[in-house]
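Moderator note: this is an archived Q&A kept for reference. The question asked for a predicted structure of one protein chain; the sequence and the answer are reproduced below.
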Amino acid sequence: SADAWTWSWSATVQGSAMALFAPEVGEPVELEATVNGVAFRLLAEEVGRTRRFGENALAVSGRGLAAAIDAPLAPTMNFSSASDRTAQQLASEALTLNGVGIGWAIEWGLVDWLVPGGVWAHQGSEISAINTIAASVGGYVQPHRTAKSLRILHRYPAAPWDWADVTPDIV
């Protein structure tokens, strides 16, 4: 979905697996799920026990890795730039803390543009800042399935007036 910057998921597992989902130091447990041969890295954010006669199960749910850079796991911060920056630079800087990267990469797929100094400001999580930048020109954020990487993409790779000359990916 182009309108969802990460995946949400839910699963039911055996109740005996409860220790596997216990968070360390308040951080959610990271899982790898394989769906039809395709791997996804996920965060287990909620774990609940369901008990019925003869059954002991856990209801586990969460979001993709990108949930780590969104509320409530990431702090609310203020983002701005006093000097001229490109949109790509602003997005990259949103993934730094005191000038040091927080371990996330950006694959920029939009046409970049210059943002004058003192014009851009945002309050929120890292992912909300990046979503705001991408959405300002009709782009969207797509997380990588297994890596800490975000792809910033055009909603439509070709302008509508050029569609007659574009070869479709799927017919």
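Archived answer notes: Helices lie at 87-94, 126-135.
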